[in-house]
């Protein structure tokens, strides 16, 4: 597709403008406005305000009733950027540290090319999704009638992947990204003087015991062939060297791929917390939030995506295993058959990982991402 090459320079400028003006989940007003304006300039039918700040562009050609969806996420992360780039974030505490600025730009490039060539027969829905970073923007769009208003036979999304060489595409049937759960365990004693520990349940000691026991759940309560991770990420409590705090909280995450394993981990976590409470005399409250399900690719859609990727990418591979990171495109895949792909953006000499303060999207993969979007639409809607 040599005619794509003339799109790249203006799209890089567009991407870097988004990078300099990042917006957090459900606050992507400038971003959504720029996307809507770009689609309108192409003569594409535009719908805004879907699931909050979501945007959908509709492009039709021919008379077929076949329909395909292509999705890009558009929110930034609450991280302070440390790249020193000329187009570095102008907003303290907001940063495109996951490449969503690149995802938006690649999908807009595909929209421009498809609107110009129209070598397909059916309807393409360009889905620009808010609030992927932990806030469930995909769920909000689905609940707002995304697939009732814009039905799709297949829906696809791609995400840049620093661990793969630039331009290499990868996907797999079945699980590709993990379910993400968050837990918060609150341990309550009465508090008191550190010199008189016998007068109050020691919430810090109970929390220490709890952390050790939580880290045995995967090893001793889950079948060895199951894939799961439990990590404690916060312990909060206390304010003075000579005071036993009344309350300590233990916070963490669980990642898994099988709902049965997910159930088993949650049940074990609650049992462990109750046991520590009984042993220590502290009161315990467990809050367990399953905020993202596992991202499960439809087998046929994944096979179609891999075949398309082999035709336009420098390399396309079957991913040998899923990742333990999570993705709220999972909600769209629960509502519509489709597949999620990784597009390598690794640079020679190494690349900063996703969510790192020195991360930046690799503009060298822009053309490959556009070609992949275009080829997916044209194959699924072949004339």
TrEMBL record:
The keyword Manganese applies. Its cofactor is Mn(2+). Transmembrane segments: none annotated. Residues 182-274 form the Peptidase M20 dimerisation domain. CDD domains: M20_Acy1-like (cd05666). The Mn(2+) ion enhances activity. GO terms for molecular function: hippurate hydrolase activity; metal ion binding. Keywords: Hydrolase, Manganese, Metal-binding. It comes from the Bacteria. InterPro entries: Amidohydrolase, Bact_exopeptidase_dim_dom, Peptidase_M20, Peptidase_M20_dimer. Its EC number is 3.5.1.32. It is an enzyme of class 3 (hydrolase). PANTHER family: METALLOPEPTIDASE, PUTATIVE (AFU_ORTHOLOGUE AFUA_6G09600)-RELATED (PTHR11014:SF63), PEPTIDASE M20 FAMILY MEMBER (PTHR11014). This is Hippurate hydrolase. It comes from Nitrospirillum iridis.
């Amino acid at each position: 597709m040599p005619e794509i090459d003339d799109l790249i320079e203006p799209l890089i400028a567009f991407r870097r403008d988004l990078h300099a003006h990042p917006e957090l989940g459900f606050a992507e007003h400038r971003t959504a406005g720029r996307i809507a304006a770009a689609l309108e300039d192409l003569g594409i039918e535009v719908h805004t305000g879907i699931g909050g700040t979501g945007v959908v562009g509709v492009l039709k050609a021919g008379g077929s009733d076949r329909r395909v969806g292509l999705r890009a996420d558009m929110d930034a992360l609450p991280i302070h950027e440390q790249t020193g780039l000329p187009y570095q974030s102008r907003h303290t505490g907001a940063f495109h540290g996951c490449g969503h600025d690149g995802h938006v730009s690649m999908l807009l490039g595909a929209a421009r090319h498809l609107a110009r060539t129209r070598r397909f027969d059916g309807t393409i829905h360009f889905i620009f999704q808010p609030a992927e970073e932990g806030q469930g923007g995909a769920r909000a769009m689905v609940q707002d009638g995304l697939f009732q208003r814009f039905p799709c036979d297949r829906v696809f999304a791609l995400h840049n992947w620093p661990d793969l060489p630039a331009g290499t595409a990868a996907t797999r049937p079945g699980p590709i990204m993990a379910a993400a759960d968050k837990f918060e365990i609150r341990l309550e004693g009465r508090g008191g003087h550190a010199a008189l520990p016998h007068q109050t349940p020691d919430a810090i000691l109970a929390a220490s015991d709890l952390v050790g026991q939580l880290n045995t759940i995967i090893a001793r309560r889950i079948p060895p062939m199951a894939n799961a991770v439990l990590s404690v990420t916060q312990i909060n409590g206390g304010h003075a060297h000579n005071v036993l705090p009344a309350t300590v909280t233990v916070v963490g995450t669980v990642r898994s791929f099988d709902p049965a394993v997910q159930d088993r981990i949650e049940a074990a976590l609650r049992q462990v917390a109750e046991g520590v409470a009984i042993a220590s005399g502290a009161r315990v409250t467990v809050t367990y939030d399953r905020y993202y399900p596992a991202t499960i690719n439809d087998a046929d859609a994944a096979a179609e995506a891999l075949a398309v990727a082999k035709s336009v990418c420098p390399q396309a591979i079957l991913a040998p295993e899923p990742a333990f990171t999570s993705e709220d495109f999972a909600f769209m895949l629960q509502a519509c058959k489709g597949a999620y792909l990784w597009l390598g953006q690794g640079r020679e000499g190494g690349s900063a990982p996703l969510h790192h303060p020195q991360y930046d999207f690799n503009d060298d993969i822009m053309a490959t991402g556009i070609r992949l979007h275009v080829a997916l639409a044209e194959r699924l809607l072949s004339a």
